[in-house]
């Protein structure tokens, strides 16, 4: 076991690997290191694999035909002649027909591994079944009689055809990857730049709104206190007037009684006393008006302040909800290439209207050809998102996998398959939720035409709501699922006579 492990241990990474065909030099490497070494050789401008262990490229292969005092570097090795040749001595092999069957390879220090160890003949064939090189004598002995044996050059040509196909496929994939990387970088740059400006602007707007609300709250509290103070002053003034009135009346009686006491005419005294007696006695016996202690109604002030504070909290929550929606709002535009010919897309790609006559549009593999539907350009595979729409007529708003079929009738309508979830408003304003051909009638109706969609990809939740007054959300229907593919938004407009239209509202 120890010798087997040593034999199958990669000399570069020291990992143990399975059985592998050794390279022509005799060394074996794990597939990962071999691929890396080959890629490194190609990256340095070398067109052949150089064993990283024996480092053949560092050894100068000399021409076997040059005189000892004028030895030149070899450019090819002939496996038939088992000699290495410089440019000059290579010419006969290239020009004379007698050498046309000789196999020329890159210069080699040791050609013994290109020769059959049993028959000492050049390996000119390859057994496809045993995956070993064989010489003509090996074939004659019959050990590979029933096997598929091909010439080395033939195998080389066949493999090069396959490799060329794989190379072209890899090249195409590399180009696609580079385009995707560039698009992703551009999208990231756009999102970061736009969101940084937008988010700061939205936060500043919320701060300004909150400052306004704080100012209103402070002003309201000051006004409430001032009004209560004014009302208290008016009550004190009224009480003062009553006290002053009683005092004036008492002073008048006091003066009258003093004048009677000073009167010398008894007849006049008696007449005056008897005339004013009852009223005077009643006035003297009634107590003076005693005003209450001046005070302000603190309870009323607190109640009014509390009401204003509640209004402030409600407005603050509204501002925070608006900010949350603004921050969660994701860019959304319509994909013209997916739009059915009966749908007219606006120039800004934010509005779609159902028309009666088919539009002249080019053929496209992404275009819906039966249902008058369109999907968004943006595709989402993570995160939380929020959109607001203005909807009219007979409409169908869906969250769907981007892979939804676009051709034919069956399985391509939103909500009529397992990969889409939709909310529909019919001509009678009735709402229905659709998924996997199952229709759920909703008891609620929209009072307006302002619709909101909240999506949490990671938790698999979809919520349709109506945006009411003061931007409050009135839930209409929710779906709960588990997403396994990237999703996008879909819009279906099926009745042209109802002026059916959907507009994506841009959050500012």
TrEMBL record:
Keywords: Metal-binding, Zinc, Zinc-finger
GO molecular function: zinc ion binding
Location of the B box-type domain: 111-152
Domain RING-type: 10-54
Domain B30.2/SPRY per the UniProt entry, residue ranges: 312-508
Entry-linked SUPFAM superfamilies: B-box zinc-binding domain (SSF57845), Concanavalin A-like lectins/glucanases (SSF49899), RING/U-box (SSF57850)
A single cellular component GO annotation: cytoplasm
Pfam families: PRY, SPRY, zf-B_box, zf-RING_UBOX
Superkingdom per UniProt: Eukaryota
PANTHER family linked to this entry: B-BOX DOMAIN CONTAINING (PTHR25465), E3 UBIQUITIN_ISG15 LIGASE TRIM25 ISOFORM X1 (PTHR25465:SF73)
Name the record gives this protein: Tripartite motif-containing protein 16
The organism of origin for this protein: Anabarilius grahami (Kanglang fish)
Lineage: Eukaryota, Metazoa, Chordata, Craniata, Vertebrata
């Amino acid at each position: 076991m120890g010798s087997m492990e040593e034999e199958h241990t990669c000399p570069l990474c020291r990992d143990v690997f399975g059985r592998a065909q050794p390279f022509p030099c005799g060394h074996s490497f794990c597939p990962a290191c071999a691929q890396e070494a080959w890629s490194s050789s190609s990256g340095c401008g070398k067109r052949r694999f150089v064993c990283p262990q024996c480092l053949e490229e560092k050894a100068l292969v000399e021409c076997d035909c040059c005189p000892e005092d004028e030895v030149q570097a070899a450019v090819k090795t002939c496996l038939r002649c088992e000699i290495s040749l410089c440019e000059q001595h290579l010419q006969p092999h290239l020009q004379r027909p007698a050498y046309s069957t000789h196999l020329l390879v890159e210069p080699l220090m040791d050609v013994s591994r290109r020769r059959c160890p049993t028959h000492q003949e050049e390996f000119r064939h390859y057994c496809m079944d045993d995956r070993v090189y064989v010489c003509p004598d090996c074939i004659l002995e019959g050990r590979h009689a029933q096997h598929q044996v091909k010439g080395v050059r033939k195998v080389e040509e066949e493999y090069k055809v396959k490799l060329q196909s794989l190379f072209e496929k890899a090249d195409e994939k590399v180009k696609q990857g580079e385009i995707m990387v560039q698009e992703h970088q551009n999208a990231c740059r756009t999102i970061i730049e736009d969101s940084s400006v937008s988010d700061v602007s939205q936060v500043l707007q919320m701060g300004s709104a909150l400052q306004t609300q704080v100012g209103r709250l402070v002003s309201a509290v000051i006004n409430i206190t001032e009004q209560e103070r004014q009302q208290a002053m008016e009550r004190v003034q009224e009480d003062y007037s009553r006290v002053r009135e009683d005092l004036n009346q008492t002073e008048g009686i006091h003066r009258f009684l003093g004048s009677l006491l000073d009167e010398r005419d008894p007849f006049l005294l008696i007449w005056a006393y008897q005339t004013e007696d009852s009223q005077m006695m009643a006035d003297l016996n009634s107590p003076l008006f005693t005003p209450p202690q001046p005070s302000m109604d603190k309870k009323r002030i607190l109640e009014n302040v509390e009401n204003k504070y509640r209004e402030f909290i409600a407005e603050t929550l509204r501002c925070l909800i608006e900010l949350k929606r603004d921050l969660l709002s994701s860019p959304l535009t319509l994909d013209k290439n997916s739009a059915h010919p009966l749908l007219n897309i606006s120039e800004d790609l934010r509005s779609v209207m159902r028309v009666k006559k088919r539009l002249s549009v080019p053929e496209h593999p992404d275009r819906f050809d039966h249902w008058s539907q369109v999907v968004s350009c943006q595709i989402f595979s993570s995160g939380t998102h929020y959109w607001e729409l203005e909807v009219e007529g007979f409409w169908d708003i869906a969250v769907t996998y981007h892979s939804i079929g676009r051709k034919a009738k069956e399985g391509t309508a939103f909500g009529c398959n397992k990969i889409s979830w939709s909310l529909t408003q019919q001509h009678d304003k009735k709402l229905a939720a659709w998924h996997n051909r199952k229709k759920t009638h909703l008891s609620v109706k929209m009072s307006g035409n302002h619709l909101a969609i909240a999506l949490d990809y990671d938790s698999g939740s979809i919520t349709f709501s109506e945006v009411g007054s003061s931007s409050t959300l009135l839930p209409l229907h929710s779906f709960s699922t588990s997403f396994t593919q990237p999703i996008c938004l879909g819009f279906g407009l099926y009745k042209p006579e109802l002026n059916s239209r959907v507009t994506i509202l841009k959050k500012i």
